[in-house]
């Protein structure tokens, strides 16, 4: 049932060209220039007139939510807040019937997310679900929603559900932006054509980085700490990269916005600190270059995720992982793939049980 792969996690990483495609199937109609999503369309005025959108989630789904915030604010210009479900619930949040709450959950059974949704519902908000498991508890209590269609995810560390969540959030942002006039037709058309090409880019990145990440992983089996840095859309991708590593390898890892480094974490950098830096060409590249220079000056070990043909960051990096170029908003989908592989192989070489890491369960049904 692992389809010839050693672990479910590896199988699920490799399924991503298909799962992202499945999530778009029947929704993204490139030739007609249309995004079809009944859940959004049936309530489009609710979204359009919302005071704000509040995204609630936990763990990896919360990271997807952060990227959703960037997407929806940039393309639909609707204010978005992203909250950890557990914090939202216990701080007497201000919610009205003009708010739209989006819950993101792979399992659809996460107790913290469920409890937060119930509270939002009581206060009259319109609640929307982005779940992977069909007919799950969260899917059932929401007013409307979109399934991710990533297929069953067995590995405790979420991989393909994450990229499917990003795909859905992208579709929602583009659909709302087109409808409310913030996303012009020409830009919409070029963005959806690019989105359509993402499964192929994931396929490319899987084939060009699979062996490479294994080789890099061998050098970090004994590491005790890792930093992950990114800016803009790739800041949440850095958080997610760090979460993957800590969950399955038990190496302490932290994600940071690259510019925040100088406000504290830079104190940690020496020749023993591995730093994964996500630095594609589009999106604050020059700023990232100066962050990398600061790390280099302190002899940190740099693992850089860059676009093909990159020079400036690559010259300073100890390890270079190349990914194909895309618009900034899609880069977390592509950049996440080699980070999943890197975490996977580090964990495997440490002899860890990657599919069922200690202390963790696939769905967290206690608050
Ligand atoms: O099923 P959910 O998406 O609601 O789960 C939320 C988190 O428990 C989950 O993402 C967790 O952080 C994963 N183990 C991450 O790999």
UniProtKB/TrEMBL annotation:
The lineage of its organism: Bacteria, Pseudomonadati, Bacteroidota, Flavobacteriia, Flavobacteriales. Catalyzes the first step in hexosamine metabolism, converting fructose-6P into glucosamine-6P using glutamine as a nitrogen source. The gene is glmS. One of its GO terms (molecular function) is glutamine-fructose-6-phosphate transaminase (isomerizing) activity. It is found in: Cytoplasm. GO terms for cellular component: cytosol. This is Glutamine--fructose-6-phosphate aminotransferase [isomerizing]. Keywords: Aminotransferase, Cytoplasm, Glutamine amidotransferase, Repeat, Transferase. It comes from the Bacteria. Its main location: cytoplasm. The keyword NAD does not apply.
